[in-house]
Specification:
The structure is a single chain. With 96 residues, this protein is mostly helical. The protein has one domain (3-91). It contains seven helices and no strands. It has helices at 3-12, 21-25, 30-41, 51-54, 56-66, 72-79, 83-91. Helix 1 (3-12) packs across helix 5 (56-66) and helix 6 (72-79) packs across helix 7 (83-91). It is globular, with a radius of gyration of 13 Å. The two termini are 18 Å apart. The mean pLDDT is 80.
Length: 96
């Protein structure tokens, strides 16, 4: 997953972060804290959502902005989705 693109998508769409992490994102350097917390503990026994789960809506919005009709495979690699999923979501935005 391309962390630079993930950070950029989260910065462009801060309101799409889910749950209690939304409040953290609004704090000074909150984004850094959220990335550190999720990057260090995401998916472990102490449940912290994965980056893709936490920022899923941001990723899908970022993918939609960058999609040119031919680059689904490239976008899939950037955001950690399959090319088929990217195409399906961009055709039917309500399923993401």
């Amino acid at each position: 997953m391309d962390m630079g693109r993930l950070r950029a998508a989260a910065a462009r769409f801060p309101g799409c972060v889910r749950g209690p992490f939304r409040d953290m994102m609004e704090c000074p350097d909150g984004a850094g804290a959220v990335f550190a917390l999720v990057g260090g503990y995401g998916g472990s026994t102490v449940y912290v959502p994965t980056l893709r789960n936490l920022f899923g809506e941001c990723l899908l919005r970022g993918a939609a902005e960058e999609y040119d009709g031919r680059n689904a495979r490239e976008i899939a690699g950037w955001y950690g989705y399959s090319a088929d999923y990217v195409k399906r979501v961009l055709r039917n935005p309500g399923i993401g």
